[in-house]
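Why does residue order matter? Because the sequence determines the fold. Keep that principle in mind as you read this record.
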Amino acid sequence: MSEELRSVILFDTRTQQKRPFEPQQPGKVLMYVCGVTVYDLTHIGHARVFVFFDVVQRFFRHLGYDLNFVRNHTDVDDKILKRADEKGVDPLELSARYIEELDRDMQALGVERATSEPKVSEHIDDIIEMNKALVDKGHAYEVDGDVYYRVESFEEYGKLSRRKLDDMEAGRSGRVDETKQKEHPFDFALWKKSDDDQLGWDSPWGRGRPGWHIECSVMSTKYLGPTLDIHGGGRDLIFPHHENEIAQSEAASGEAPFANYWMHVGMVNVAEKSEDGEDIVRKMSKSLGNFWTTRDVLGGYHPEAIRYFMHTTLYRKPITYAVENLEEATRRVQYLYTALKRIDETLQRAEYDSDENLPPDSRLADGFTDLVEGFMDRYEAALADDFNTPNALALIAEVARAINEATESDSAPSDALAHTLVLLRKHLVDAGSVLGLLERDPKTALDEIRDLRLKTMELDPKVIDEKVAARVQAREDKDWERADELRDELAEMGVEIMDSQQGTTWRLK
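Structure:
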């Protein structure tokens, strides 16, 4: 069965080239993705990583692969200790709260759960054991209760990020912590000494807590084994986090490589105005004051519009967060749901309105054969080429255009057209599902999008309905001047009037 699965091509960060994906076991995928440090709400950079690897997860399973996907929670970290101290709460209580908030935001975005979502706090014994192994093998050493990894003991250190220790040391310019008695300035902490009033656990080196990097080496190997098929995360993790993971994992297990493929998601930039009024793009950063949480964005935009926006740029490239881009994504999602709604309305006119009452098998309507019969193969090929979501969206748009053209008439469709529309609807929904799109009832989704847009535009739908009703009355009274005034008022509000034989409706431009 595994030989029949579609092959996938991945861009591997380590080799800096596309490579055919060859899992260690045919038909099975072992994937580990770094989660977040849970001391605050997630931001849209985190969301982009979660959404992308959600697509990876969905696509592998869509193709029939058996995927074991592990994504961790960093619930023990110095940032958590600092925030908990500021708030006067227990660090593990703080991290547990923000794990709940993370789950809430990702569920809202339609991100499916990983196979396993382990926490650092639940794997302290495993972390101590790996640290002991690294010390015993000469790859780590203890200094006054702290344990450090000896980077010079690992000859291939820097092979992922393509950095050399000598070059990094020459250019460090005070950026490396040298307050400890480390053998080399780039040696990094595996275990940190905890004060009596700090979170900590007993260990052979005294009371302490894990360093940042060791957790992922421990949890990935515990749940997936010494060699991963795919390791992923944000691009900002390449160095030092993923570089250090490689050093720890391969030194501890004695097996290489730690991961056969490395996938990294590009950063989120923000479109802004400079002090001179010029359009600029800057990296999103709390220090720059251009920081957006996932919840901020969900407050103004539909979850599927956010996902669509993220799919418009190849995952490993930077993406620019801008209101204009999210509004365009919103319009595109509206367009897709409208296509589904038009199919449903057209089928109802032919009295095909349920799974039990569909058109009989029939020939396809003229001009649709290539689109219907070849669509899913072309769609899967687009995503199999290093998850090219922009190309996948273009193919989805092609189907939506065909649907809109085929449903222009208000008359009942022929059996051939009805049969064709059923197949096109299935293609659109199946393709959308891989990207986390078109998973709602069309009317529900369109209402949700409309309500969010009304909220962000600060418009009251009751006021709009009243103006539309007044315009209808003016037209009935043949008061054309008043009808035109009301139409213009609505247009200034961003509302478009649509008159038809069925009545007058409105939509947001």
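The chain has 16 helices and 15 strands.
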